[in-house]
Amino acid sequence: MSLALAVDANPLPPRSVEAMLTFAERGPDKPYAYAGEPPEGVPQMRGEYRARSVRLENARPFADQLSLDVEGFAVATRPSAVGDFWDEAQTLALGHPETAELVREVTGASRVVVFDHTLRRRSVDVNDREPGQPRQPALRVHVDQTVWSGPKRVREIMGRQAEALLARRAAIINVWRPIAYPARDWPLALGDASTFRPEDLIATDLIFQHRRGETYGVAWNPSQRWLYVPDLGPEETILIKCWDSDESVARFTPHSGFEDPSTPAGTPPRQSIEFRTMAFWD
């Protein structure tokens, strides 16, 4: 095959794309969503959402300049020692420690705890919460934690150590990595945290069987800047700020999966893993 044909078969990503992102709409009642089955007669969720066309800027040319404390996310190259992320034992034994070390290096935190991970594989045939199945890409713009749930999650995970840790700076940071091949299909849309206003964030109850959390839905406004990192490879990661106790830096980073209209036909469905970490500073 000639070089010209190879390039045509896998064209370079454009400088920007127009894509649909789903935003929350403000309403009189606090939204909620059940992570599992709701009680009989109770709707699965409450809240209004609206898809909007948004311009997403290709961040590849300046990815090395992105900062967790300014834009709220960063791109880091870190090959993984994990041979198979679908093997839970490998992911726990190798993936968790290497992720903790990556977050320490990027943030300068003195201690990092990896407390969870989620595997995703896009499929049109799988329910997002079907037991035993990988999660699907997130379909709504959101932030994983809020000003209330961030400290609450630290207390739930860290127990008796929590109050001493929360007396200093603490943050919850997700580390997102493609699995096996580049994530050209359904990549991540990432909001530049410096362009969001507090009123853009809509607290939403997330109700599990044995606990209640809170996330932010995100209302659209025209001043928001949206970016994406096309063709993120398995040796690359995106670190996403979900909550930070330091009010002088980016604290919450809106994000969502999205259908990239420039994705070539026949691109394999996105596979990814996200590690959830807590970072603590002395």
Give the key terms.
alpha+beta, 282 residues, disordered N terminus, globular, 4 helices
Structural summary, described in words:
- The chain is of the alpha+beta class and 282 residues long.
- Helix content is 15%, strand content 34%.
- It is built from four helices and 15 strands.
- It has helices at residues 3-9, 88-107, 149-158, 162-166, and strands spanning 16-25, 32-34, 45-46, 48-58, 73-77, 111-121, 142-143, 170-178, 188-191, 201-207, 212-218, 226-228, 236-244, 255-257, 271-280.
- The chain has a five-stranded mixed beta sheet, with no helix packed on it. Strands 3-2-10-11-7 form a five-stranded mixed beta sheet, with helices on one face.
- β10 and β11 form a beta hairpin.
- The chain is globular, with a radius of gyration of 19 Å.
What topology does this entry show?
Blueprint (H helix, E strand, L loop, with lengths): L2 H7 L6 E10 L6 E3 L10 E2 L1 E11 L14 E5 L10 H20 L3 E11 L20 E2 L5 H10 L3 H5 L3 E9 L9 E4 L9 E7 L4 E7 L7 E3 L7 E9 L10 E3 L13 E10 L2
